[in-house]
Design brief:
Layout (H helix, E strand, L loop, with lengths): L2 H5 L7 H12 L8 H26 L30 H5 L19 H6 L1 H30 L7 H11 L2 H6 L3 H14 L4 H12 L11 H74 L9 E5 L5 E6 L7 E11 L2 E8 L1 H12 L3 E9 L6 E10 L5 H14 L9 E5 L5 H6 L12 E2 L6 H19 L6 H15 L7 E7 L6 E8 L1 E10 L2 E11 H10 L3 E4 L6 E5 L2 E5 L4 E3 L8
Parallel strand pairs: 6-7
Antiparallel strand pairs: 1-2, 2-3, 3-4, 5-6, 7-8, 9-10, 11-12, 12-16, 13-14, 14-15
Helix pairs in contact: 2-3, 3-6, 7-10, 9-11, 10-11, 13-15
């Protein structure tokens, strides 16, 4: 028997190579299908391991091995046509075809072998004894495994037992018997029922001990295939867990990268936001400095000092001018949009403070008046630098002082126009804004006092005041004012004559003298829209000023009573009282219930 040919390898004393060759052959030869062939393979395997030990012993004793074996192919054929076995009797049979040389050096022809000398070699007898001992040891190892397996009941996971089995299954002792029919059959029958807990760990220990692969089920037959299938469940589960862990690790890596990017982005944002805010503030502050230097070129200002931040994000600064250090200047810088572009907007009070400061120097009263102008959703806040006059009798002197102030003080050129109004009217916005919703009242009472003459200013203010009194405070006009204004107002009201309205004649209640006559207009005023089907249609209301409503009701004999303070009048009709004077205009149909 040529053990190396059976194992399919070159002669070697490397036990690792011998075991590897044996494991490969056991996948091809199964004891159930070819018991004799498998027995011969196992004997060749044991002989090769024994030979490895024998050679090691010879070399350690100082001898040498001169010949491994003679192959069957190189042996001469006998007369029967059979190949002549040239290995010495006894040792060759036991060793499975191995020939060994005697140890040491003898006299005479060293290359000549004699049967009696060969038979007398102690090495061969030792090898025969070793093989017999090995076979006996092999049976003992199988019996030992079966005993170990019987004692291994482990219904619960026992780390110490698992550690022992791991070492035992990787030992040479188990590797020698792992494909023994009784071992494979026992494992195939009992391994699924052996452990209630930790069975997968036990199966994986045997899977690795047998060197099974994940896709080689069809390579086995009989009990070895059954064992493979039983162990494969644990292997498949392990592979799923590995894939899951790999997938989880991959996802975790992606998550970590994402978190890292998010944290980095957050850090960048946390850095950029304060930087951006600081930059915007500094830019706004610098814009304010440039704005003040450009608008008030003749004076310098202190560095803006931030004093407040409003809800809309606007920053309020405090400044001092070198020309008027006693004036505490404030300026608000906000971000706005002009023609779709994002720009800084500045609202400062230095110009208004100069205006009020110089007005006091010239004996005038200057102030800032705000009025909500426009109609409905087109409302706007209008601010006027306003000069107030208290008495119409002194209007000429007032106009001379106002014109003189603006022509003498160069710093006031930052104020383009000034509104002029009296303190003694109910509706100052009429004079300031020039109208109320639905009415036109001449023009706004705003003037460029650097170009207008004092006499012209006085004349326009008197004319505006006259028109205002007739249309909005008629109940406060005296008989003297009727005589003074009658002719001028009759001429003026003729310009308003239209199809909606009527002429009125005002008489002295005592002498029945005709004081004046004038036209009372009513106006078509768009009040809003109403929806009808699929069409939006405009709604118009006929409107009349509260002063003209006073004349209209008197002409129809309504019971009118003027308030003692001149703030308006009320109409009594069948016990019902309607007040007028709270608003500058009245809807025309409301008057029908008052006469």
């Amino acid at each position: 028997m040529n053990i190396w040919k059976i194992l399919g390898i070159e002669p070697t004393t490397d036990k690792k190579a011998i075991r590897k060759a044996y494991a490969a052959k056991t996948k091809e030869i199964h004891p159930e299908d070819a018991p004799e062939e498998f027995k011969q393979l196992h004997e060749a395997y044991q002989a090769a391991l024994g030979y490895s030990d024998y050679v090691r012993q010879v070399e350690q004793s100082g001898g040498s091995v001169t010949s491994f074996y003679k192959t069957e192919e190189s042996a001469p054929e006998g007369e029967d046509g059979d190949k002549e076995e040239r290995a010495p009797a006894g040792a060759g049979e036991s060793a499975g075809g191995i020939e060994t040389a005697h140890t040491g050096e003898g006299e005479g022809d060293a290359g000549t072998e004699h049967p009696d000398e060969t038979a007398a070699e102690p090495g061969r007898e030792n090898l025969r004894a070793y093989f017999e001992e090995s076979q006996e040891k092999h049976g003992q190892q199988v019996a030992a495994f079966l005993n170990y397996w019987k004692e291994f009941q482990g219904p619960y996971h026992d780390p110490e037992a698992m550690d022992w089995w791991k070492k035992y299954l990787s030992s040479e002792e188990f590797q020698n018997i792992r494909y023994h029919s009784q071992v494979v059959e026992t494992l195939a029958d009992e391994i699924d029922d052996k452990c209630f807990y930790g069975i997968d760990e036990v199966k994986m220990l045997f899977w690795e001990a047998y060197g099974f692969q994940g896709d080689e089920e069809n390579a086995y037959q009989g009990d070895r295939q059954r064992l493979y299938r039983s162990l494969h469940t644990a292997y498949a589960k392990q592979q799923r867990e590995i894939q899951y862990e790999q997938k989880w690790a991959k996802n975790d890596k992606i998550l970590r990268i994402f978190i890292g990017i998010a944290v980095a982005a957050l850090l960048v944002i946390c850095i950029l936001i304060p930087v951006t805010i600081h930059r915007q503030r500094e830019n706004g502050r610098q814009f304010l400095i440039d704005y003040m230097a450009k608008k008030y070129a003749e004076t310098s200002f202190s560095e803006p000092e931030r004093i407040d931040k409003e809800d809309d994000g606007s920053i309020v600064y405090a400044l001092r001018s070198s020309a008027h250090p006693e004036l505490p200047v404030t300026a608000k810088v906000e971000i706005g949009y002009v023609e779709g572009k994002r720009v800084y907007l500045v609202k400062e009070d230095y110009g208004q403070m100069l205006f009020e400061y110089y007005a006091a120097q010239y004996g005038l009263e200057g102030c800032l008046v705000s009025y909500s102008g426009g109609i409905y959703d087109d409302q706007e806040i209008i601010e006027y630098a306003t000069l107030l006059y208290s008495d119409m009798e002194e209007i000429d002197a007032f106009c001379e002082s106002a014109v003189k102030m603006f022509r003498e003080q160069e710093e006031l050129r930052v104020i383009d126009e000034v509104a002029v109004c009296t303190e003694s009217v109910l509706f100052p916005q009429i004079l300031l804004y020039g109208s109320v919703p639905g009415f036109s009242f001449g023009e706004e009472q705003t003037y460029d006092l650097r170009t207008v003459e004092a006499k012209e200013l006085s004349r326009e203010l008197k004319d505006a005041y006259m028109c205002y009194m007739f249309q909005f405070e008629a109940w406060n006009i005296t008989k003297e004012q009727y005589r003074e204004w009658g002719e001028a107002y009759e001429k003026r009201s003729g310009e308003w004559e239209n199809e909606n309205g009527e002429w009125h004649e005002e008489y002295d209640p005592d002498t029945k003298e005709l004081l004046c006559r004038f036209f009372i207009p009513t106006y078509n005023w768009r009040d809003g829209y109403y929806y009808s089907g699929k069409i939006n249609m405009s709604m118009y209301a006929r409107m009349i000023t509260v002063g003209n409503a006073y004349y209209f009701l008197r002409d129809r004999g309504a019971d009118l009573t003027v308030n003692d303070d001149g703030s308006g009048f009320y109409v009594t009709f069948f016990g019902n009282i309607t007040d007028f004077g709270n608003e500058p205009s009245v809807e025309f149909y409301e008057l029908r219930n008052c006469y």
